[in-house]
Amino acid sequence: MSKKTVLFACGTGIATSTVVANAVTEAMKERGITIDSRQCKATEVRSELNGVDLIVSTTQLPSDLGVPSIVTLAFLTGMGKAEALDKIEAELRR
User: Fold this and answer.
1) Which letter, b or e, does each residue of 17-53 get, where b requires 16 or more Cβ atoms within 10 Å of its Cβ?
2) From the CB of residue 85, how many other CB atoms can be counted at a distance below 10 Å?
3) Catalytic annotation on 40?
4) Best exposed site among 1, 23, 29, 57 by fewest CB in 10 Å?
5) Catalytic residue among 6, 7, 9, 10
6) How far from 67 is each of 6, 15, 56, 74, 79, CA to CA, in Å?
7) pLDDT score of 14
8) Whole-prediction pTM
9) What is the rounded CA–CA span in Å between residue 59 and residue 92?
10) Alpha helix (H) ranges present in the chain?
């Protein structure tokens, strides 16, 4: 599998996206998937889409981005984290 690029977005592009990016990067590494992680503010997503395979966000995103996206708070609350990781893995293996 080639390296995948994942864009992590949150309200500020700093705090929660960093937490989620670190958790997802480590979990995908354990599942044999190497990702290139990028972060941005939710308002910057459209301008950051070049080369992105998946967007993972902690806040709502427009539905017309043309790139698969997963919106989840699982990495902040801990609830549903395994399911979110399964969804991310499935999307990256397509």
Assistant:
1) beebbebbbebbeeeebebebbbbebeebeebeeebb
2) 19
3) no
4) 1
5) 10
6) 10, 23, 11, 21, 25
7) 83
8) 0.94
9) 20
10) 15-30, 74-77, 81-92
The strand order across the sheet containing 54-57 reads 35-41, 4-10, 54-57, 69-71
* Amino acid type, 12: T
25 with 75: CB under 8 angstroms? no
Q: Of the candidates 61, 88, 63, which has an alpha carbon nearest to the alpha carbon of residue 74?
A: 88
In whole angstroms, what is the distance from residue 83 CA to residue 13 CA?
24
CA distance 59 to 34: 24
As averages over each run of 10 residues, the pLDDT of the chain (94 residues) reads 92 89 96 96 96 96 94 92 97 95
